[in-house]
Give the backbone structure.
Amino acid sequence: MDFLNKIVALSAKSKQLGASLTTEEATKNALVMPFLNTVLGYDVFDPTEVVPEFTADVGTKKGEKVDYALLKDGKVQMLVECKKYGELLSVAHASQLFRYFVVTQARIAILTNGHQYLFFTDLDAPNKMDEKPFLELDLENIDEHALPALEKLTKQFFDLESIISTAGELKYVQQIKRIIGAQYKEPEEDFVRFFASRVYDGVLTQKVRDQFSGIVAKALAQHLSDKVNERLKSAMENGERLPEKTATDGGDSASLSGDASEQDNHENIVTTEEELEGFYVVLSIVRKVIDAKRVIARDTQSYFGILADDNNRKPICRLHFNRSKKYIETFDVEKKGTRHPIESLDDIYQFTDVLQETAKHYV
């Protein structure tokens, strides 16, 4: 599997097993070790690459351990500290990482609870681990913008200088995104004043500012919704993409299964995170038989379609997630659709053979 497939597969596993992981050891075995092995590319059974319960004497702290040390060419490159699944991650959980950062050659430290991964380096002071991560990854809510930086941390592409040179920008981008998110939920007065002063000609009294607080929040929400409706997320840097959303089929508007809802009002289409994740799962399956760049998503009010070549007459499948009971609709050689009920995104993998067989017809 390639890099994206590995992450998608581990994301599905995390969602499936997370609730049953009640101890740190269970979390390590089920999620952390597979992440180190399949995503970062280290052989967890080779002590020259992965050292569990890594020990280094730190001042008066003799024999203190960090969960894993990742080695390359005999040198410690990264340190990993684990907590049990779902446990809140904070700097308070990283005391060993702070101490070990000083006495080892490692420049990268990872704090994880199995599905969330926080990556630290020493941007603020040499050989002293920063208190804020430069990169964050949540396997259950994947931000594709983090994936190129994550790939630089894999054993195959590990380039410390490149990582450090971009870590500062990544760190501040993460923090600014968090601030923007907070303003989106509840705009602060200065933020409201900034926009109100550019569109309102009168005096910005308290009453006016209170009024604009709701207006700004609504404008932000509508802007983000518009951006989602205009263009779905890019999957990776390598040119794979999700297309701009469209409410019609551009000349092929007749539904293959008799569904006449393709001519939807564009403004009423809302693409959900679950639909996007479903697309990634299907993409990871069919890209083995068809170029991933040809696999396109097209959302409508009634279903989320996945096509070859952005052509309605080349359906790969449809995701019916906008209802209480979820279905995946697959297509045979005659393009006749069959709906199958599913309980979770992981169930899509049950249809690997039929999805790949359908995609083969368009190669």
